[in-house]
């Protein structure tokens, strides 16, 4: 049965709100609070930070497995069954995680949670919103994906409080229960994969004529592998995932190593999540107006500046400056990655393509935390790793800005990007 909808309220906005809630809980309780758990678990279980960070590698293996599979299945049968299965997997995984006694058990929990995380949130939400919005897609994506930051902002201090008063095991269990009892009903009641499922058309700005050929345009995975734009997006996602994962998951521990209190470090991380909301709300409309590639290049530059600042974070006011800048930049990938994918590769096979591309972000997100953790365990310092992160973000910015403009945004007078000298083919868009 189709959900009720009012002619005054486009149902796509209900879908955006539902995606917000899902991302708020799934990311807020799983991924964005892991920095709060890192040191308490390491100290309680007597595990090294490098060994513990391998759990993130296991989670990345789970997301790497799930992303292309979930994307392909969603393209075939729709999003809701995949999202329900993903939420159930996460919830049960966190409940199991509250009972672990060995490191390998934690690794299994993170593999399962990684599979669920990708299946319940990033892949389906990106696809659904892209289906519902032809115009203002960036703004809609921003509105939904701000949930990841809002969840981290709210749940970081909550998780810290629960851990301090009741222990990290209780925090794990409560997170799992919440995801099961809230996310699954939201998916079943509110999520619809296509506007046609409820007898509607995708949102377009007034006066914008439908373009069936454009909406149905898109390359398959096999063809995409021969395209320069695919590999440029993949490179940016790899670097973004590596740096965000490496810095983000060790940030709280790094700040406490500098003798900032756990409460101050948790507050700084909460500030990152809070400012990330502003970043995500801004980046989508920015991309709608000036292109996703330019927005991504600007985010990479801001990333590099914030990481350089945190290397001088002994005074607490510098910590707060870092948190504000890093938070503003950190929200960009979740919003811009699906926008770049839909713009350069099309919507016809979006689920499968975005699933494959997410493998790159997954690989980066696995390498970064583990590499940073192992280096710290051997040297007692994060600083050389952070300097490397600065250089990598500058490289990602160059790759992003070098992407060939697409469609109506391209001006005849615009200079040819440097990377266009590489003779790899580009897809041809349909004309209407």
Give a verbal description of the structure.
This protein has helices at 11-31, 34-45, 49-77, 80-97, 103-132, 137-166, 168-190, 212-215, 221-224, 228-248, 251-257, 262-290, 292-310, 316-330, 332-345, 350-379, 383-401. By secondary structure, it is mostly helical. It has one domain (11-198, 218-404): Growth Hormone, Chain: A (Up-down Bundle). It is globular and about 60 Å long. The two termini are 35 Å apart. The model is unreliable at 1-7 and 407-432 (pLDDT under 50).
Which value, in Å, is the CA radius of gyration? Answer: 21 Å
CATH class bucket:
Mainly Alpha
CATH superfamily: MFS general substrate transporter like domains
Indicate how many domains the architecture comprises.
Answer: 1
Note the run of SSEs as H and E: HHHHHHHHHHHHHHHHH
Task: Report low-confidence residues grouped into runs of 5 or more.
Answer: 1-7, 407-432
Average pLDDT, all residues: 83
- In the CATH hierarchy, what is the architecture at level 2? Up-down Bundle
């Amino acid at each position: 049965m189709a959900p009720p909808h009012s002619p005054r309220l486009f149902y796509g906005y209900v879908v955006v709100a539902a995606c917000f809630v899902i991302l708020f809980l799934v990311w807020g309780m799983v991924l964005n609070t892991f920095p709060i758990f890192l040191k308490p678990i390491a100290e309680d279980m007597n595990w090294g930070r490098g060994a513990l960070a391998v759990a993130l590698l296991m989670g990345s293996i789970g997301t790497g497995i799930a992303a292309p599979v979930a994307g392909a299945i969603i393209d075939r049968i729709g999003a809701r069954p995949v999202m329900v299965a993903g939420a159930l997997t996460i919830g049960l995984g966190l409940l199991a995680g509250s009972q672990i006694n060995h490191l390998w058990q934690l690794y299994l929990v993170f593999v399962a949670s990684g599979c669920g995380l990708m299946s319940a949130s990033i892949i389906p939400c990106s696809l659904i919103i892209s289906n519902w919005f032809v115009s203002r897609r960036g703004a809609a994506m921003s509105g939904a994906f701000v949930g990841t930051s809002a969840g981290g902002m709210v749940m970081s201090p909550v998780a810290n409080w629960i851990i301090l008063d009741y222990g990290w095991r209780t925090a794990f269990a409560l997170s799992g229960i919440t995801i099961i009892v809230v996310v699954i009903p939201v998916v079943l009641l509110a999520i619809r994969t296509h506007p046609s499922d409820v007898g509607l058309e995708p949102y377009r700005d007034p006066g914008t004529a439908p373009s069936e050929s454009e909406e149905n345009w898109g390359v398959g995975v096999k063809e995409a592998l021969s395209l320069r734009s695919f590999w440029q997006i993949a490179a940016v996602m790899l670097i973004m995932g590596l740096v965000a994962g490496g810095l983000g998951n060790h940030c709280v521990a790094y700040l406490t190593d500098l003798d900032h209190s756990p409460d101050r470090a948790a507050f700084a991380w909460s500030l990152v999540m809070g400012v990330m909301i502003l970043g995500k709300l801004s980046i989508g409309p920015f991309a709608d107006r000036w292109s996703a590639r330019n927005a991504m290049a600007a985010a990479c530059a801001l990333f590099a500046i914030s990481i350089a600042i945190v290397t001088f974070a002994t005074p607490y006011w510098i910590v707060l400056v870092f948190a504000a800048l890093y938070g503003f930049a950190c929200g960009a990938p979740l919003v811009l990655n699906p926008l770049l994918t839909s713009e350069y590769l099309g919507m016809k096979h979006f689920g499968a393509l975005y699933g494959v591309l997410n493998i790159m972000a997954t690989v980066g997100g696995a390498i970064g935390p583990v590499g940073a953790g192992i280096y710290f365990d051997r040297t007692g310092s994060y600083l050389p790793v952070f300097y490397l992160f600065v250089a990598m973000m500058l490289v990602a910015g160059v790759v992003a800005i070098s992407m060939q403009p697409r469609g109506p945004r391209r001006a005849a007078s615009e200079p040819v990007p440097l990377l266009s000298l590489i003779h790899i083919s580009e897809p041809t868009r349909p004309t209407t």
